[in-house]
Amino acid sequence: MKPVKVGLLGLGTVGTGVVRIVERHQEDLLGQAGSPIIIEQIAVKNTNKLRSVPIDADKLTDDPWDVIRNPEIDVIIEVMGGINQTKEYILEALASGKHVVTANKDLMALHGQEILAKARENRCDVMYEASVAGGIPIIRTLIEGFSSDRITKIMGIVNGTTNYMLTKMTQEGVSYSDVLREAQELGYAEADPTSDVEGLDAARKMAILATLGFRTNVALEDVSVRGISSISQEDIQYAKRLGYEVKLLGIAERENDAISVTVQPTMVKNTHPIASVNGVFNAVYVYGEAVGETMFYGPGAGEMPTATSIVADLVAVVKNLKLGVNGQQAAAIFRDKKLMSDEQTMSKNFLLLHVDDRAGVLAQITQVFAEYGVSLESVLQQPNPTNPEAEIIVITHDASRASIQKVLQVFESLDVIRTVKSAYRVEG
Amino acid sequence: MKPVKVGLLGLGTVGTGVVRIVERHQEDLLGQAGSPIIIEQIAVKNTNKLRSVPIDADKLTDDPWDVIRNPEIDVIIEVMGGINQTKEYILEALASGKHVVTANKDLMALHGQEILAKARENRCDVMYEASVAGGIPIIRTLIEGFSSDRITKIMGIVNGTTNYMLTKMTQEGVSYSDVLREAQELGYAEADPTSDVEGLDAARKMAILATLGFRTNVALEDVSVRGISSISQEDIQYAKRLGYEVKLLGIAERENDAISVTVQPTMVKNTHPIASVNGVFNAVYVYGEAVGETMFYGPGAGEMPTATSIVADLVAVVKNLKLGVNGQQAAAIFRDKKLMSDEQTMSKNFLLLHVDDRAGVLAQITQVFAEYGVSLESVLQQPNPTNPEAEIIVITHDASRASIQKVLQVFESLDVIRTVKSAYRVEG
């Protein structure tokens, strides 16, 4: 049996995990894939750095092109990150007939279609299970498990950092800035946390999931994004009282053939399965017309979970190699993209208003909702203990994004409303 | 493009769902599978019965052999149920080069290895995603998603009927016999509910999951089974008070290369993700050495969820047909089976004892535990309001099944213990 030779780009946390799994589970992998698997060469930044796994020095190079151009290598595993330069490596690897396994969500969200087209052209596999929700085999599930169904909604907690932060804020009552500092100290959040807390990381993953789920090409700029940095303890406490959890939710929806993809803080009814996903865990909830509700739960990141997904992809590539069928996955994309308008995008909404504490205010406000056809599920008015305002909390029935925007515009010019403190989508 | 022709054995609930999906989603299926799919012939018991989907009368036959021997047919979908006769149909279909998709857990649990061997011999596919946990693509996940990991534990709520019953008993305080009657009236439980309530249905599914997860041939007789019929409201209320939910749990475990598979009522800590799976929903929790905790949640039965899994299998068969690689899935089984002894099988345990209400009883009891090396996590003693006994509730730390059995034997001959009211495994 000819061994399959692998070139690794990057030997950080995840790359080290890949080396560990391939070495520890040689026998299992042989049983699974039918061929021995050898890590042939590894591109690293610093060839002299001490590693936590034993690696022959002569397998290391500091030039990724050495790996890409190594004629011995059958499969490239890319775990170095980066976008433009990394894309060049991958395109060149595919051009020379090498298969690619990558964990790079940024790359796949931005250039996935170009890379997949290049792969088909060269009859090569590109697999990227690890790019979304680390250890959860959700990409495989969307491509194969639900191939016969029409998926109409995908909701994801796909960023562990923000879910950890929101869980802490909910369970321990700490402020956004305190929990961010703590997450940074624990290494869950980066020194510049923008990509996580402003929802960009989640948006990339949702673009990938929506592309697969709806089989249409969803680009990053199609995703409307709002992060968690403006969430206050007040919001979280109100949510709790009303039976909701505040989660940063990616929501991809399809109505007929128009789609909408958003990432935004959302109040999720606490009886919904996704409401109980806490800490750094990820979960993807999928609604299919035929199957109904399903949810996939697991670790969203980390050395070993992510490496598991990468090596599972590697096993799939090796099986295809043995069968001679690489690069022949049916094209996933076969529908034209049509985005929902703001008039078509419907959801329930939570609004927290600070208003003048005098007679007739509630009547004025509810009249504005009525004017724009927004009906209300519940209204709660109470005095604000700390100042002479009253608070009004409204949860609407399903209303279009357009009508809610119009209501909010009118509220800005309404004398009796001092501030619209918060506005959130509501699910479940 | 030559269409792929399907023969259907059975047109009950699930068969009807398959016809519905294939007709409704022709365009999507063509995009997925690359070939049109035609339901060519259907074997039914009564060809004159009125159907809820429109079907050409000349496609119906009351003899399954007509379908098996129809040379036009490429793929057989078996949704008629049954074991011995059905096995003959399937073996003959494979012998004549037809691929098989089945939802038949009984057949796969009892004769899976023989059927899979016959399939390999004839280069045919046999797929059975729908046989376990209806709409959840768990078989695909175990074969492919975790191919690189070493799975050490699978816990499943894989019988919707009993989970519905236990959920009702927990949430509404109704008795076992009342909830059984209600489940029968709703059609969730059959007139003879034995297979569900005594855990046999779950055992068949666990044998299939353990075989795939541990890649060793687990037979039905390897599964130790206990049903839910002896669970009382008292047990459920005590569980609640201590922070547990009572679930009928299938548990497959591996320690080194020895395995254990059981189905039994289990007290699950209410913070564990599987504890919140309620009603007729199913969930499979998978623990992998590398990936850690994952869980897959969804509908366990029903016309459309089950049909979705069947048609997803059908799409996979059609893709393989186009690639010419049917029957070439790497053999999943490559480990010899070794069952754990009772000395090796470890778990926490819950015991509810009714004892004489006098001094020194607790000391006597705890001494028995100590004698057999069982250490205790918590002990609660309280008077029993309805009679002159006291109740003692013990939760042990991890202890071997053998030592718990010895403790229970001694308890039988201990004067101060009137009854061991309940004994359950504890998880989470």
From TrEMBL, chains A, B:
Pfam families: ACT, Homoserine_dh, NAD_binding_3
Superkingdom: Bacteria
Annotated binding of NADP(+), by residue: 9-16
Active site: 205
Domain ACT: 350-425
GO biological process, one term: methionine biosynthetic process
Amino-acid positions noted as binding NADPH in the UniProt annotation, renumbered to this chain: 105
Biological pathway: Amino-acid biosynthesis; L-methionine biosynthesis via de novo pathway; L-homoserine from L-aspartate: step 3/3; Amino-acid biosynthesis; L-threonine biosynthesis; L-threonine from L-aspartate: step 3/5
Keywords: Amino-acid biosynthesis, Metal-binding, Methionine biosynthesis, NAD, NADP, Oxidoreductase, Sodium, Threonine biosynthesis
Molecular function via GO: homoserine dehydrogenase activity; metal ion binding; NADP binding
Keyword Ligase annotated: no
Catalyzed reactions per annotation: L-homoserine + NADP(+) = L-aspartate 4-semialdehyde + NADPH + H(+)
Record keyword NADP present: yes
EC number: 1.1.1.3
Binding site for L-homoserine: 190
Cofactor: a metal cation
NCBIfam families to which the protein is assigned, alphabetical: PRK06349.1
Protein family membership: Belongs to the homoserine dehydrogenase family.
Name of this protein: Homoserine dehydrogenase
Organism of derivation: Paenibacillus sambharensis
